[in-house]
Amino acid sequence: MRDPGTVTCCTSLPPPPSLPAVPAQGHARPQQGNLSALPLWEFVLEGFRGGVEVQALLFAVFLALYVVTVLGNVTMIVVTTLDARLHSPMYFFLRNLSLLDLCYSSTIAPNTLATFLSSSKAISFAGCATQLFFFSFLGTTEAFLLAVMAYDRLVAICSPLQYPVTMCPVTCARLVLAAYCGGCLNSIVETSLTFQLPFCSSNRIDHFFCDVPPLLRLACANTALNELVMFGLCGFIIVGTTLVVLVSYGYIAVTILKMRSASGRHKLFSTCGSHLTAVSLFYGTVFVMYGQPGAVESMEQGKVVSVFYTLVIPMLNPLIYSLRNKDVKDALRRLGHSHAEDSVP
Fold first, then answer.
1. CA distances (Å), 181 to each of 48, 144, 172, 233, 318, in order?
2. Are 72 and 319 within 8 A, CB to CB?
3. CB of 331 closer than 8 Å to CB of 79
4. Measured distance CA(7)–CA(22) in Å, rounded
5. What is the pTM assigned to this prediction?
6. With 301 labelled, which of 52, 81, 91, 169 sits at a CA distance of 20 to 30 A?
7. What 3-state class would DSSP assign to 175?
């Protein structure tokens, strides 16, 4: 018979409280109200959609564009460096433009070509940040340099007697340095603001390289400030440099129309037309991508536009300046004849 003073354990003891699950070592524990459950060590560049055939075709197209870009810009750098007749401020700026285009494409194209052949398409967190920094740095510097080149043409055509003094080598070097400093400052701001965000919704970038708009789509924090800063900085750079170009070429057009020599007008229009073509292509595509509200949402359009300003325009710039520039074509002929004479035993 059971002792009434005896209390059975199965009826008197409450069930043990459930213990919280201990997260596995090496993973961040999710916090309530925060979606950043795992730290991201790498991203995946989704690039362009399509099967193996489409990827192979894109690889061939990108490779061809990049090879022509490298050959064209290296040729312009070599020609403007070796030919003493091209040691003028205009060709000093043109040489720097070719160097920027060469580095600009090299920041994007090699990694993109590798992703076409890779099954993982992965890029490290540090690699993505580095690519974004140099992409923004070189692209912004090119925008400033194009404005500097417009100012150079303004002084050369409207004040030819003061041109050697105004655009002396020291002034040219300072203008180029200022363009690089402006590009570096913008890149630091854009890269630091972007990569301080928590990326948690996904690690798959809907682009073929690391850029601000697709990265903002992966953030699980409020990106209003980032979008405002991007729109403000890009708008300021595009509007400011475009105004410099428009005002410069406004004065240039008036000066050219007052000239009596038809051959002189034709030569100046040809030289200025090359620069205006390069400026229109670059500023137009950059404005479509970064200079309008809502650009972050149009990723499919952004991919196509990005191909133009990362590969097509750097490829076209040396062709524009060489095919429409008599001095460059003459320099190419002189270098060709000199090389042929040196090769004859």
1. 34, 10, 14, 15, 24
2. yes
3. yes
4. 35
5. 0.81
6. 52
7. helix
